[in-house]
C-alpha cells in the first residue's frame, strides 16, 4: 500500500522542567509506588528489559558487566522469538547465568508486554531498547511505576512524542528517579574530555562544525507470505518512519547530539537541507531515505554541516570536526590542533558499559541522581527537524518543530493492516506545523 506518512491526530533540562510542570501532576502521584529510590551497595538491583533484539541483548551484557549487583529478572518483547533467544543465550552464558534470572513466567510478549512486565514483576530499574516509536509509552509507564530507566536513543519519532517524553522526564526529576540516555558518546572518556576542552575555549570561539556519518546499509528482512502488513513492518521496523524515525533519527542522532553538546546544549534556531532515496528501491526498504545533508544554524551565527548516508560500496567514515578561531578539534579522534594542540592519553572504559555503570551507581546512592532528559529530548527533536527539512525541502525553525502537531502513531495496535507507505517527496510533502 502507498500513501503519505500518517498525519497528526490532532530541551534541555531547564526547558523540560519549565514546559512540563502542569502535565506532570498526575504522574507525581505515582511517587507512592516507588519501592526504593536508592538501593544499598550490596542489594540486588532487579532489572527488566523491554525490547530483546540486538540492542537489548547488548544492553543486558553491558548492564551485567557494569555492576555486580545487577540481576536481569524479566524480559518483554513484541514477538516471542527474541524472548526465547535472549533467555537461552544468557541462561547458558557461564559469565552471566548466575545473575540472569528471567524465567518463562517473567517473559512477556505483545504490544502490551511492558505493561504486563511492570504489573507482574518486582523491579528496581528498566532498560528500554524496543524500536523508537514505542519509547514514549514505555518510559511513561516505567516512571509511573517508580522505576529507574536506561532509555535507548532516540526517545521518539515525532514532536508529539518528544513532548510526552519531556513531560515524563520532568516527573522523574521530581520523583528522584534516574534517567540515563543511550546517547553513549556522552559517556566516553575521550569525547568528554575533548568536548570539555572545546567548551573551555581551547580552540577559541566555535565558528562551525561538520558531522559526518557515512556508512553502508543496515539489516533488512524479507516479507513472509503468512505475515500481515503490520507484523512485517514491526519486524522490519528500521525502514518505516513511524517506527524508526528514519536513519537520521535512529542512527545519525549520535552526531547531531554532539553538535548540540558542543553548543552547551543550546539548540539551533533553524535548519534546511536536502536528502533522498537513491539506492533503496524494493519492498524491504520501506519508505526511509538513504542520505541526508542538513545545515543547522545557531543564534550566534555558527553552523553545523551534517551529512549522513547508507550507501553500499562507497567511502565510509564517522567524525565530528569542530572549527574554532584558534584551532580545530576532532571529537572521535580526541584530538585538538592549533595554538594549543592536545590529544587524549587517558584510560577508557567502554562507553556502553560506562553509561550503565553510572546509572547503577546512582541507584545505589554512590553518585548524584542522573536525569539526561533535557539533551536526549533536544537531540531527538533536532534529528526530527533535520528529517523534516529534507523530506519537505523547506526551512523550519526550532520553534516551529517544537510546536508541531506531527504524531505518527497508528490508529491502533493489532495485527492486520499497517500504516500506508509512500516515500516523501520534497516540494510536495508538508511537515505539519502549528498554524
Please outline what is shown here.
Strands 14-13-12-11-7-10-9-8-15 form a nine-stranded mixed beta sheet. The chain has a six-stranded parallel beta sheet with strand order 3-2-1-4-5-6, sandwiched between helices. It has 435 residues and is an alpha/beta fold.
How would you characterize this protein structure?
The protein has 435 residues and is of the alpha/beta class. It has two domains: 13-185 and 353-372, Rossmann fold (3-Layer(aba) Sandwich), CATH 3.40.50; 189-345 and 380-402, Dihydrodipicolinate Reductase, domain 2, CATH 3.30.360.10. 33% of the residues lie in helices and 18% in strands. The chain is built from 15 helices and 15 strands. The chain has helices at 13-19, 25-28, 54-66, 80-91, 113-120, 135-144, 159-175, 189-199, 229-235, 241-244, 247-250, 253-261, 351-363, 373-392, 398-402; strands spanning 45-50, 70-77, 107-109, 125-128, 148-151, 179-181, 206-215, 270-276, 291-297, 303-310, 317-324, 327-330, 335-338, 342-343, 396-397. A nine-stranded mixed β-sheet has the order 14-13-12-11-7-10-9-8-15. Strands 3-2-1-4-5-6 form a six-stranded parallel β-sheet, sandwiched between helices. Strand 5, helix 7 (159-175) and strand 6 form a beta-alpha-beta unit. Helix 1 (13-19) packs across helix 7 and helix 1 (13-19) crosses helix 14 (373-392). It is globular, with a radius of gyration of 21 Å.
